[in-house]
Write a structure and sequence with these properties.
With 125 residues, this protein is an alpha/beta fold. It has 3 helices and 5 strands, in the order βαβαβαββ. The protein has a 5-stranded mixed β-sheet with strand order 2-1-3-4-5, with helices on both faces.
Length: 125
Amino acid sequence: MAAKKPIIHCDALVVHCMDYRLQKFIQPWITVRFGYDNFDIISLAGAVHDYEMVLKYVQLAVLIHSIETVCLINHEDCRAYGRDGTYKRHKHDLMDSQFKIKALFPKLKVETFFLHLDGNFESIS
């Protein structure tokens, strides 16, 4: 009889934009919140701008790592959004993504943030 594989677990999936300007803020912030090795991280141009792609990673992280939290981070002056990248649009997209993920995975905690280029993480809810 084959031995069962152990369940692999990490606390969170963090989804943020690939923009290099964010790295100096994101890495320390994640470490403070989740430690050095207790999260999955995905960098996508525009972060939640492509909700379908985000959803694929959420589904995968739930399935293979039994995550409990999803952190979605959009940011100021996101070039992937172009002219549509207003604060209002980012807030809408973050809240919409949060709502859709919670509808599919009611046990997940979904946190949303808007990262200002001065390093301030603004909670959106």
